[in-house]
Amino acid sequence: MNLSVRRARGADRLAGSLLVLRRVADVALGEEVLVHGGDGRLRHGQVLELDESFVVVQVYEGTFGLDLEETVVELTGESFRLDVSTGLLGRTLDGRGRPIDGGPAPVGRRSLDVNGSAINPAARLGPSEPIETGITAIDLLATLVRGQKLPIFSGAGLPGDELAARIATGARIAGNDRFATVFAAVGITRREADLFRTAFAGAATLDRVALFLNLADDPAIERLLTPRCALTLGEYLAFELGMHVLVVLTDISAYAEALRELATAREEIPGRRGYPGYLYTDLARLFERAGRVRGRPGSLTLLPIVTMPDDDITHPIPDLTGYITEGQIVLSRELHDRGVFPPIDALPCLSRLMNAGIGAGRTRPEHRPLADQLYALYARGRDLRRLVVVIGEAALSPAERRILTFADRFEAELVGQGEHRRSLEESFELGWSLLADLPAEELTRIPLALLAERRATRRPRAERAGEPRSSSRRPPP
Prior knowledge:
By secondary structure, the protein is α/β, with parallel strands linked by helices. It has helices spanning 136-139, 160-170, 190-201, 220-240, 252-265, 279-287, 316-324, 333-337, 367-391, 398-415, 424-435, 448-456, 461-464; strands spanning 7-9, 13-15, 18-22, 31-36, 42-50, 54-59, 72-79, 81-84, 92-94, 110-113, 124-125, 130-131, 144-145, 152-155, 179-188, 209-215, 244-250, 291-293, 299-308, 327-330, 350-351. The strands form four sheets. Strands 9, 11, 14, 15, 16, 17, 18, 19, 20 and 21 form a ten-stranded mixed β-sheet that branches. A seven-stranded antiparallel β-sheet has the order 1-7-4-5-6-3-2, with no helix packed on it. A two-stranded antiparallel ribbon has the order 8-10. Helix 2 runs parallel beside helix 3 (190-201) and helix 9 (367-391) crosses helix 11.
């Protein structure tokens, strides 16, 4: 071992993708290393663990073919860094930020540590102003706000990935062209990778989207790097170039599984359901990189996708994610089985920062009361469905039948928008149209003055009778 050149020759043992060697002077946790094998192949790695006598290195490309005696580990003295620039927008990259779309390597303007740094709480601004996703159930009922962390809870077989791709390609800020999306797919299959490539290739917004793809057969350590690379690019665009950036991470469950895999290989004491005890801290270090900074015009908004094992929202991954983030969008298996897309279950959905992004000067003054009224009526309709199972629909009053019909239309027309992207204005008019046939006494969440104004401007039914109607929305009242 020659310490003067910070090289270590020979390893003590190999364990999967882990390489264990004797302690080297001045080695640092998280330091990037170069592994030279006896087969002449250069591998890259990262220091994962230190103790008094040993160093544990995770080898990105795996340890297959390495010889214990001939292996040479060279310490670089730096953590993993990513070269960032606006040239990464419109490109498809692997989990470590290397181009895989056949184009030339982009020129980096800055080389940044992918681990980032915490936002000073004194400099952190609260999220404000909306981001229009094009999904009515989100824009109208659980608005995504710039600087917010809003997860989507999905399940096995549910179209969480499709919804993520739709949002990534359709999100925008009205009247602002300094908007970009960074999409990171973690631990996906090749079929899913092709799905994402196809979805982004056909999008008109491709030139403002950066796509990071980490495949399931890539090393586990790369699944830990991919979201960090995406967030590092997002931070550069948001806080140094003043852009508004939406970072979409799918799937956080794959990230957590990689963390558990590495913890097991390192023989750590497992925590809840086998996940390491620092899972909460690790997720928080990712999610808390989103936000807004005082004195800087940009914002970084985070939309992580979480696949709930067995649809269990109390599982450690969605449970801890819910503690860190500011609300949730929940997908419904029942709606999916009925062919509704996107199958968003409005009742458990919540955006805790919605009020900071809606109202006069942001969306419309009536946004809050309209959303509250739609939500309240739909909740009543869901209760009536359970009642119908017991007493039958014939036993309902006329008013209850109207609410039941409203709940059906809510799911079929407002939630089930299909492949059509809706603007925020279209979503508002669709919401009002669902309320149009209900008597005023049922609309208890709408101020009387607002209700009178809406119904005074409503055109007579005869004028609207000859207009074409789409299957996704009805004309405004």
